[in-house]
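Obj.: predict assembly geometry.
Materials: sequence records (below).
Method: joint structure prediction, all chains together.
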Amino acid sequence: MPEIRNYTLNFGPQHPAAHGVLRLVLEMDGEVIERADPHIGLLHRATEKLAESKPYLQSVPYMDRLDYMSMMCNEHAYVRAIEKLVGTKVPVRAQYIRTMFDEITRILNHLLWLGTHALDVGAMTMFLYCFREREDLMDCYEAVTGARLHAAYYRPGGVYRDLPDQMPNHEYNEFRSKADIDRMNEVRQGSLLDFISAFTDRFPGKVDEYETLLTDNRIWKQRTVGIGVVSPERAQQLGFTGPMIRGSGFAWDLRKKQTYAAYDQVEFDIPVGQNGDCYDRYLVRIEELRQSNRIVKQCVEWLRANPGPVIAEDHKIAAPSRADVRGDMESLIHHFKLFTEGFCPPAGEVYTAVEAPKGEFGCYVISDGANKPYRLKLRAPGFAHLSAMNEMVEGHMLADVVAIIGTMDIVFGEIDR
Amino acid sequence: MNDSVRKSIRERHLELADKLSSCFSEKDCEVISQFDEVTLIVPSEHLIEVAETLRDGEEFEFRELIDLCGVDYSDYGLSEWETTTASGTGFGRGVDPEKTSGNSQPSRFASVYHLLSMEKNIRMRVRVYLDDEQPMVESVTGIWSGADWFERESFDLYGILYNGHSDLRRILTDYGFMGHPFRKDFPLEGHVELRYDPEQKRVIYEPVTIEPRTLVPRVIREDNRYLEPDSEQQDTPDA
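Observations (raw structure tokens):
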């Protein structure tokens, strides 16, 4: 009789399906996994410690670099924590802009998730389709902030600036024909809101396109149905949030349950799975794409009809406008104090959370009354999800590990912080 | 969010605070309500009993542990710049290494738990103050399985020991890392840096060459807007 022994397999950190720098040590019995030990921390940058040595405002761009696929949602959790500490009221228009960009971010994130998850499992076309739509949304990011990914757009008290009236156009160049450029500029003739509005009109058709390729696809179902099943009780025990717990049957969504920004003013539904497997989580996220699109549409309508300020008038927290700084002594002093020393919130501790695309992104700030946070703890949804890796892959085949990593929607920027 | 919703959230938090103080007062627990949030301070020896009641008790049902983290309070309330006398003595750009002392916390280390009840739709925070020299607390992995990695992280970054944790290894720092980097006495730039040495043909560690510097001094100002207790703080934005 041949000798049977377990193998230990190193998966990653350089592996295209590891979604970044995940090192998985797998103990295998043949093709079946007995134990999985994820080694994380290869992208640890000590964001929380860095934030302790900087005034509050200077840490906003760090938030983009945590979960670098849902940038503005991270910023949202952070600025809400500061707003709660200092008690700033955010103008309604800023709330709507935040809601709209949170949802644009959700679509961006889910598209990347869908593209890469499908690519891992073997569907190449999805990747190309999803990145096509992501391009349009990153153009929205660029139009409003000048950056395609790391936006640094939200500020305590509102957002940095109002939406632009003119969507930037592509310039003529030698790489594309004039007709091509004209066709690409066709939807960019109006304002940013016109561009987003046109996007929301065509996007449901694109989601149908994705679904035609995957939802009833035999291979897709073979790879995802019944894989990585998590019962509702276990999902709660393991600290799951977001689509991961909704896939297991909990209708839990912070946007509805502990509402913030303008989410109580817009209509949307929460999709819920039944079986808690990879396929259900896929269906939940696909439906979230449609619901997010619906929210964006409502926000565009509201924003068109209601001009107004986008940042709080309290210049102890929010910077005065450029024009005021040039002409008004008091504004100049405010500007100087804000950008040299920063503001000092009262002593105390707050925890705020937003429904980020991956789950609950929380921000715990301890202030001792100084201009820098005393302690900042960022609660990343992916951290809790990945910690359940061992439990989810046990007894599955090696190929299913890839599907389970995909379904968790992990990004190492937020897990390693 | 409209005002009535905000008011009901505040009321529910006050209700929870009442329940907590009536339920746990004989265990020397203290309840703090601030910014519409409830904090329960638990002596470390009672943590497991309290946590079990919080999870299973019918009036609590905190079935989900959202977050667990360590805190090092050793520099709490310290500012690098004395602002009250500055107008008489003048401002200096340099930071005084002899920091002025501030108000102290009961203990250096703490372990903080954020709990969520999906059934009751409410959150709370539990804080356990720990020993200064040998911070150790019972692990809550038996109560909330999700605490596993969070406790490893807290151990890694603060050196807090979780008694009863089955696999208390480092998680975020490098293999073979020395020290606990999030403690306040651990410098921001660290102790060692790493580079590839072409002569030895391997990666080597060397003492850091970065000079520590303070770009913006840490300042604590007595802002008169925050001095009156609970007047403006009551009016928190959409929490």
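Conclusions so far: Chain B has four helices and nine strands.
To do: check interface contacts against the pulldown list.
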